[in-house]
């Protein structure tokens, strides 16, 4: 039986490089009151950790500390994508091979030519999660979801451009990886990400003894505080917003995000639980030429594949041109200057992480306060923190 890796314990002291004091000040100012919740922010520059701070409340009775982790929604897509790249550089998967070469059932309903590259760039036409499986808790049943995706017919709009797979993306990656390796996806994540990086907080199924570390999410995720079922039904019949409702608003999702059972399921498109420390370390390797602490995590040629823009077409779900990379989107900063080679993934509610190979910066932010006073779906916290960080490293 292989030895269990000895992971370093969480820091009990914060770290602030003097250059990053303005960024730390901006972060701390976000968590002055309990109704702001809590969060953590970690930054690396050229593989060196320069910031590791946290503040606020994990729940009403508990302060956020160095051990706190948070459900980070679509931030987990970036981790799932990185797993795929680790496998691709060893030839276990091929970007241009059909998904059905690894997962034969996927070929049903005209999907036999859809490739791994299509999957990583949201071009499989399987964005629809609304109505995919029966029941308000049906999404917790991994096998049922996988069978439904394998049988589903792709949306013809995939031929014209990407359509953000807001929830289904994770299952598509997980099952393809599992079929290619012959291992459960969570085991592959541990072997390909957590163990090489020496950080264990990359969870889609949270170990029972670690669940007390999870921060409590608030407020409700309902857009504008409106009833979820009513709002999603209305949006599903509105032309410009129909794709978003189909991709991101399954019935009962507002309740599901708070159901403790989500931490026992494998739903890598949205249920990843991470620390800012773990995310930052992964992206630090990407920003530093694939190397962290002298150990190669990814090859240079793999990084080139990861960062190359795959499509500039309009995304038919989001309604914008997002310049998808292979499993990542470009960082979005509150600045006139945007990273030209950056890649990462943000999540609904505010959490996210990214790497900028041009400056060597990696930044990760996790929080339990979903959005702002206007909407829980997202805000500019990470965009502003990222802009501040970029200004520091460029000065």
TrEMBL record:
One of its GO terms (molecular function) is hydrolase activity. Gene3D superfamilies: DD-peptidase/beta-lactamase superfamily. The keyword Hydrolase applies. Signal peptide: none annotated. Its EC number is 3.1.1.103. Residues 36-387 form the Beta-lactamase-related domain. The keyword Iron does not apply. Keywords: Hydrolase. It holds the Pfam family Beta-lactamase. This is Serine hydrolase domain-containing protein. It comes from Prescottella soli. The lineage of its organism: Bacteria, Bacillati, Actinomycetota, Actinomycetes, Mycobacteriales.
């Amino acid at each position: 039986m292989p030895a269990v890796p000895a992971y370093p314990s969480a820091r009990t002291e914060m770290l602030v490089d003097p250059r990053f004091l303005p960024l730390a000040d901006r972060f701390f100012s976000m968590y002055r009151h309990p109704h702001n919740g809590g969060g953590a922010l970690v930054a690396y520059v050229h593989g060196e950790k320069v910031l590791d701070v946290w503040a606020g409340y994990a729940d009403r009775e508990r302060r956020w500390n160095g051990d706190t982790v948070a459900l980070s929604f679509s931030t987990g897509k970036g981790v799932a994508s990185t797993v795929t790249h680790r496998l691709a550089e060893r030839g276990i998967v091929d970007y241009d091979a059909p998904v059905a070469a690894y997962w034969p059932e996927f070929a049903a309903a005209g999907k036999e030519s859809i490739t791994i590259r299509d999957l990583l760039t949201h071009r499989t036409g399987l964005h629809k999660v609304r109505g995919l499986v029966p029941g308000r808790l049906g999404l917790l049943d991994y096998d049922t979801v996988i069978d439904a995706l394998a049988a589903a017919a792709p949306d013809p709009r995939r031929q014209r451009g990407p359509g953000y797979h807001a929830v289904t993306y994770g299952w598509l990656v997980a099952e393809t990886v599992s079929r290619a390796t012959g291992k459960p996806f969570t085991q592959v994540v541990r072997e390909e990400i957590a163990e090489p990086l020496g950080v264990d907080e990359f969870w889609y199924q949270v170990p029972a003894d670690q669940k007390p570390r999870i921060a409590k999410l608030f407020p409700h995720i309902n857009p504008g505080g409106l009833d979820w079922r009513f709002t999603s039904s209305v949006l599903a019949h509105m032309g410009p917003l129909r794709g978003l409702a189909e991709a991101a608003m399954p019935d009962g999702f507002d309740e599901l995000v708070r159901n403790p059972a989500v931490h026992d399921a494998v739903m890598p498109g949205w249920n990843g639980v991470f620390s800012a420390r773990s995310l930052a370390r992964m992206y630090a390797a990407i920003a530093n030429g694939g190397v962290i602490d002298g150990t190669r995590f990814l090859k240079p040629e793999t990084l080139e594949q990861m960062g190359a823009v795959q499509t500039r077409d309009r995304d038919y779900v989001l309604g914008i041109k997002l310049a998808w990379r292979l499993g990542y989107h470009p960082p979005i900063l509150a600045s006139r200057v945007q990273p030209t080679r950056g890649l990462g993934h943000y999540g609904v509610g505010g959490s996210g992480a990214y790497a900028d190979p041009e400056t060597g910066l990696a930044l990760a932010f996790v929080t339990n306060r979903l959005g702002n006073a206007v909407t829980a779906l997202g805000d500019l916290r990470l965009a502003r923190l990222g802009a501040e960080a970029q200004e520091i490293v460029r000065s």
